Fold:
Amino acid sequence: MANLIIDIGNTAIKASWCDGITLGKTFRYQGERMLEFILSLTEKTRPDILVLSSVRYFSPQNIQKLEDVCERFVVVDEELMQSYGLPSWLTPDRAASIIASRYLFKGRGCTIFDFGTTLTVDFLDVEGEFKGGNTSPGCKTRFKALNRYSKSLPLLDAPEITADEGNDISSSITSGVISGIMFEIEGYILRNPENINVFTGGDAIYFAKRMKNSIFVVCNLVLMGLALIAVEYDKKD
Structure:
């Protein structure tokens, strides 16, 4: 079996071929030619199941083109999320992360941190029930906002090392942004001390290195969730 799973995020597309829940090589693409990129992955192999998770709009015409290049097509939409007991207001990638966490940490409560364009934090109880979640600006988004909405602050990026307090304009910005996110993370962990803490997303490793608490980094958590959706979909047929 060869399934193709696609996650279209705010800034990039991640894709992988998978056999069951075993992921193969991961592909990443940043650009506007999303459909062409996805179709290029199917030129040599026709997917048995193609699962699409997207936070961006995909036209019905483009959906039809994807349906034509696979045996069975699944889109992570409100109906699918509700079938997993998840609310329709969640984005598809968050739903996939929750599905994967339920599988990986069955019988344990989870706090799932996704470090991307946004920082999302989702909570599962020991039964795997979704208890709600929060959203705030991600790391790079915070740096961009300071530059865009002020008249004098430079655009910076997260440094490898940050001081507790800044002693010039650059270090005060980097320390403020990184420390603010760390306080945010630690606050959620303290609020749910019994939970397993799961880090995923582009900046997951950056913040994992700064943690004193025990955490699990699962870089491809969303893709794993999509692979699980493909497995469950195949069982229904």
